[in-house]
Amino acid sequence: MSWLNGQRCDGLPVHDRGLAYGDGLFETIRVVGGRAQLLDRHLQRLSGGCQRLAIPIELDALRDELTQFCQVLGQGVAKLIITRGAGLRGYAPPQPCQPQRLLLGSPLPSYPPQHAEVGVRLFPCATRLAEQPLLAGVKHLNRLEQVLARAEWHDPGFAEGLMCDMSGRVIEGVFSNLFLVADGRLHTASLTRCGVAGVMRAEIMARASQLGLSVVERDISYAELLRADEVFLCNSLYGLWPVTGLAERVWPVGPLTRKLQSVVADLLSDS
Questions:
Q1: 164/67 same-domain check
Q2: I want to staple 138 with a disulfide (CB 3.0 to 4.6 A). Which of 46, 49, 103, 158 is the partner?
Q3: What is the average per-residue pLDDT within 54-81?
Q4: Of the candidates 37, 19, 138, which has an alpha carbon nearest to the alpha carbon of residue 87?
Q5: Given pLDDT bands bounded at 50, 70 and 90, which one contains residue 270?
Q6: Residue 55: domain span
Q7: Is 139 an active-site residue?
Q8: Which of 28, 188, 244, 257 is catalytic?
Q9: What percent of the chain has pLDDT over 90?
């Protein structure tokens, strides 16, 4: 199932700058019972990214279109792609531009239930994230670093990979954000240089604060990660996975991880 600018389609125009240059953004949205989950956070991030890239969008109209698409899809994943639209050869953005809206529907991924119940092991990726503050946090279309990182392992014993920046700071998973628990506080990487500001990451930080938990965004070294009391991953499709191992380090599934996992499960429930 796919729509282009509100109409059923089978593809994108060949001159689109999203294809030529990755000139655009995307959101991957869980759809349950015909409704987009965490919709406000997805649209807020998308709007911020479009402002950063100077791609004009009509947010209210986009919300209506996405709502209709999810009602038709019913259950699954809605991938929303916004590109700057078609352009002639060359990097200079067309003025004015005519953005394209592409919506793709697919089934929900079937993750093994033990990932959430027992926890997952992290693969230590050699691929590093380049530091570019102008794009930090934005979910833009260029995901080649993640493609290279995901190609590093084929062992199903690893459900995710750990990605660091060029200075060795811990940033995120290949398709997840990462949190650690140390001294009773929740810590997550600062995303001022690189990384994706996940919507589930934002939701967990907000919910944790409401529960009276201290949340810190900061630079995290690899050594600090290994010293953490608990570690977990999150994204908007699977929710929260405890991390139980990285290299020789083994972690228990701790009480704070389980508490937040319960909160996230309620967010992603069918009700």
A1: no
A2: 49
A3: 96
A4: 19
A5: low
A6: 2-106
A7: yes
A8: 28
A9: 90
